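Annex B.
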Amino acid sequence: MSSQPPTRRRLLTLAAGTAAAPLAHGAASAHAATDVAPTAIAARATTVASVSAPPTWFVVPFALDQVTLGNGVFRQKRDLMLEYARTYPADRILAVFRANAGLDTRGARPPGGWETSDGNLRGHYGGHFLTLIAQAYADTRESALKTKLDHLVGALGECQKALAQSGSPRPSHPGYLAAYPETQFILLESYTTYPTIWAPYYTCHKIMRGLLDAHTLAGNGEALEIVSKMGDWVHSRLGRLPKAQLERMWSIYIAGEYGGMNEVMTDLYALTGRAEHLAAARCFDNTALLDACAEDRDILDGRHANQHIPQFTGYLRLFDHTGEEEYAAAARNFWGMVAGPRTYSLGGTGQGEMFRARNAIAATLDDKNAETCATYNTLKLSRQLFFHEPDPAYMDHYERGLTNHILASRRDTRSTTSPLVTYFVGMGPGVVREYDNTGTCCGGTGMENHTKYQDSVYFRSADGSTLYVNLYLASTLRWPERGFVIEQTSDYPAEGVRTLTFREGSGVLDLKLRVPFWATGGFTVTVNGVRQRVVAESGSYLALSRNWQRGDRVSISAPYRLRIERALDDPTVQSVFHGPVLLVAQSQEQGFRMFSFYKDFRLRGDLADAIRPEGRPMHFTTHGMTLAPFFVGDDIRYHAYFRRSEPVVVFGAANSGVPNRTRADGLTFLDVLWAQAPFETSARFVGAVRALADTWLSDGLFTRAERDRVVAAAVGANLRN
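DUF1680 family protein: predicted structure tokens.
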């Protein structure tokens, strides 16, 4: 918005010209019955945390280390990020913390970007890096990663102690830990705006989350002690402030951005049982927006997207521990305001970091759509909502964003100096992805994205009787409580049969297989080669109940079809998909490409009549252009949306000469006609044309002569399959 200060991304660009989970991703949380002293925390936390799910969860995730990725694109992207995790120097991450604490920086330079020696967001990247290393260790169990993580945590503990003992100025509470003095937090309390200060509690959240992940994913007890003290400091600052002051702070653009502080404080409370930590979580209630969303009033237009998305995951966690329905209702309704009405075809949201008007898709396409951080947080919210209510719509949205935005956000080249991830992902015509983002918010979440692909492939019911198969990624699940080891072989995101094999274990289990919303070309299941007589409805879960035995094999086939999705505000602006995969036209042109398909349709009414395989897997050609899967991480100019041009009613070579007029909902005569396909015979096709032409005539969209010419063209076309 023109009335807002420049975006952080814009400031980074200017600077470049002058400068040289729920509780982690596995076990859910439930608070302890009594307060726990820091010494007790350290004593008990020598192994990975394992605490029970809250009673509000009907579905529970598996720990990150219980699911391993198989071969394929997801593993390749993960391996690129693992190389960065192993190689990037820990001392560079620690430099800004040590400098602030008056400790020797060991000659290390800060990472750069926003993570500089004088940056107002410095320290946030270190929190993300902690999560990166913790996730990487949970996934691989590489001892060198654990050593690196323990080194990072130990150094941060030294900084916290140095600040408490001799900080200049000395913090207001010995739990303070940041890469800059407490000044930013003090200034926020007097409503200082961005960019004088940036987002101090956002930075605090990243550090706290990284430390919690170091504890819950890698069993580092010191990390829990450090973050518990930080939680005490947060309460000491905010617990004394009037509610009106807090609400005004959180309403400030960017300066009041606090990431998921309410989530991390609630997760901390789940481990410590300290009432102060839950009280501090409630200090982050952004009441005006919270109340509006609880009442399902959409006031998102013009708000900073990623400033608000993570707040709602925090509200869900507060619901888990307070039982206050307003929190849960707000989260559900907020998700509904974003997923769909404000979501581009790749699964991302926002224009230039901002939410725009509801349903404004075509009107907002440019080179600064879909901030990658926002998708990271929307997917977190989607999976948390699924824990509370296993609605397949949440996982449909998750799959869309994971496959078409997150997977696409990592460049397909090696680097040990940069995460090589995206910030904005433009959806306008002829844009190009830009990678790097060392030190930015999206650089931080980008490091995390590619080391937790497996966190939502499988869930289980709270009572352990049901296994949800949400994503068809090559992977292996180890479920020791039930004795199962289940391997999934799959070429996803490419088309193909997905096979689940029970490698170990036996017993009664309800297997729930997600039938994706896009699976309109059939969904068949066989068990040990025998086809199951089950009804598979797209956008649902199909249940198989059986006493499973070692060696049992479940094979799932869901053929991909080419399909289009229309922009909500302009049906002529469209994207094309192959099953779940967004296809983008590769073209240097920077205006909308015009596509026309209906003239090539046969009776089956399939886009495959107009879009042909190119020869490479998942690549197609149309109108002289290559359509490529968007997840390929390159820097070729692309068109995620095209403009559909079907000006005249044409059937094959038979041109009626009649304008293809549009009715009130934006759909044309040919849109409505071909939505009825396939047609079994040419006679049935002609009958459908005649009936629809009569409707267009009665609605005043055709004259009698035009109606007759359209029917005559249908008869003369003599279409076949």
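Residues 1-6, 9-50 have pLDDT under 50 and may be disordered. The chain is about 40% helix and 15% strand. Further annotation is deferred to the next reporting cycle.
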